[in-house]
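Students often ask why we bother predicting the structure of a whole assembly rather than each chain alone. The short answer is interfaces. A chain on its own may look different once its partners are present, and contacts between molecules only exist in the joint model. In this exercise we take two input lines together and write out one structure for the complete complex. Read the inputs first and try to guess which parts will touch.
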Amino acid sequence: MKKWFGYLPGVMLLAIVGYGGKLIEHSIAIYGKAHHLTLPNIEYVLWAILLGLLVSNAFGDDRFFTVFKPGIGTYEMFLKIGIILLGSRFILADVLKLGGVSLVMVAIELGMAIVLMTWLGKKFGLPPKLISLLAVGSSVCGVSAIIATEGAIDADEKDSSTAIAVILSTGALALFTFPWIGHLLHLGNSVFGLWAGLGVDNTAEAVATGALYSDAAGKIAVLAKTARNATIGFIVLGYALYWAKQGLAKEIGNKGSFLWKKFPKFVLGFLAVSLLASMGTFDHNQLASLANLSRWAFLFTFAGVGLKTNVRDMLKQGVQPFIVGLLGEGVIAAMTLGLLVLTNKMIGL
Amino acid sequence: MKKAKLSLDWWTVIIASAIVAGVCLYSRVQPHFTFPW
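Now the answer. The structure tokens for the assembled complex follow.
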């Protein structure tokens, strides 16, 4: 029971920061209307992240802030709950079509990430296992993939925290650059949503990037990212087998149970809810309620994205891994966008 | 005997399922209710 109370301050902070973001958006809209001003419509997503960033970077290193940390960590749980509930907005045919496109792209992206990150990592003299972690993080799904791989290839904890810092900082950068590029190129919601889901590595940042563009793009970003997350077990298994063959990680026993253990179970929840929605189980009001509950869960997530990003912690990791991450991610994002635009022209997304 | 422990991933699925079930059950009592945003 005491353990549960430990989460309470951080969860409350997530709620306050998230709701604060929503209030700012609302207040600006009301002020503009009352004074007949055309103010830029900045979404609550960005306000929640910015407020979180402000709080975390102003007080993150203070002793009293440690009381909030366990609860802030629950933002990932809210993210997964939000994704499962969002399954109600997809019919299974869309999931299969866009999920299929995403899986093909993930395969291409994985090849690109491994070749590029390995080449760049060697050029910059990074340790081999850090290169593996960066390749996994940039091809599959950011932080969870890095944590899963760290154990499977017996990587150093320092390598793993560096890889996580690189993935999180490139994700933070994507939050601001992707929507800007999307508007500059007049990308449609489907292409942008797929790009955010495939090009931004950590799930929370990918969802936020999509939502910053539009509601529809956010929805598609969630689908693309979920398909990408589903491949995590295969990629981790591949790397674990490679390092075991080199004699630098333990052997894998039962590959089937390894895959199942690493499979993100929330993907099953998302598919189940989508199946129920496709069968017409939910009426109009139930669908609206589920969509709104999913938005509330994401609001907590966006607050968490800001609250767990501490710029000073990231700078402690050294410059070289960041240069490799930035260069690698930049090229992968550009190539993914090129492929998506081409696919859109060929088959229509 | 070692007690089987559910992972956080499974807990997330259980909580989300409970929310879906809750929405469906509550709409039987209040058919026009929509959770606000």
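Check your guess against this: Chain A is about 80% helix and 0% strand.
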